[in-house]
Design goal:
Blueprint lengths: L5 H30 L1 H9 L6 H25 L4 H33 L4 H23 L10 H5 L6 E3 H32 L3 H13 L1 H19 L5 E3 L2 H7 L1
Antiparallel strand pairs: 1-2
Length: 250
């Protein structure tokens, strides 16, 4: 009977915690879809007209719902090792695609918020495309690092969900580029709010921030920072994905 080190056991426990966090994320994703589906049909589908905005809404709404099925297999199935690697690559590209969809929606919204200012549009486009290029490079150049952890132990738990320090650095670069764009959107939104009402200390700022979604952007910035920290903080060999990674995706 093989013996495992304390680190191997801790790694396996971390992966299991990661799976529980993923389960929470998937549950929230599908629960949110079903509780607002009737409202979506009433307010969107009955008067549906094809446009860039409606196409992006459908992509943002249904891409994660459908594409999460292979991710469920990655986290809770027991596929062979080559299939695991394919699923994990798919997961990273899906994250890039969903973030791109969200970025497009935020870009359109902020463009409208600034009365279709070309200068603001160009600033956002340059930041978005630069961040997307960096994210794509960091994901495509991310190879699997051979670790010292006991692979037989990891295979007992299905797909190996651990990340090497090298992978953590690469993925943190991708999240960092997303953070730059999210921070820009957050700053532009808050700047617009402050300019729209001079009485910011008389109870109106909070309502305006809720109206314009700046609080949401601020939360996403904090989540991205926390995500980056989990990827760059060094551990003996490997890292494991955590809840914040799922929040960032969905």
């Amino acid at each position: 009977m093989p013996t495992y080190s304390h680190w191997d056991i801790a790694l396996l426990q971390g992966i299991q915690v990661n799976r529980f966090c993923a389960l929470v994320s998937f549950t929230i994703l599908y629960f949110d879809y079903f509780i607002v589906f009737s409202t979506e049909v009433e307010r969107f589908w009955k008067g549906f007209t094809l446009s860039w905005a409606s196409a992006l809404f459908v992509a943002n709404r249904y891409l994660s719902l459908v594409a999460s099925i292979p991710i469920l297999l990655e986290y809770f199935g027991d596929p062979p090792e080559p299939r695991c690697r394919q699923l994990q690559s798919f997961h990273q590209y899906l994250a890039l695609l969903t973030q791109g969809t969200v970025a497009a929606l935020l870009l359109i919204r902020t463009y409208a918020l600034y009365n279709r200012s070309k200068h603001i549009l160009y600033l956002m486009l340059i930041t978005c495309f630069a961040g997307g290029a960096v994210s794509a490079w960091s994901i495509m150049s991310d190879g699997k690092y051979v670790s010292d952890a006991d692979s037989s132990l990891l295979r007992l738990s299905g797909c190996d969900l651990s990340l090497s320090n090298q992978q953590g650095r690469h993925i943190s670069i991708a999240w960092g580029s997303m953070l730059v764009f999210d921070t820009l959107i957050f700053a532009l939104t808050v700047a617009k709010i402050i300019k729209s009402d001079k009485k910011i200390w008389k109870g109106t700022l909070f309502k305006l921030m809720l109206r314009d979604g700046a609080i949401y952007y601020g939360i996403m910035v904090v989540i991205n920072i926390a995500n980056i920290v989990t990827f760059v903080v060094r551990t003996p060999n490997l890292k494991h994905r955590v809840l914040l990674n799922h929040v960032g995706l969905y």
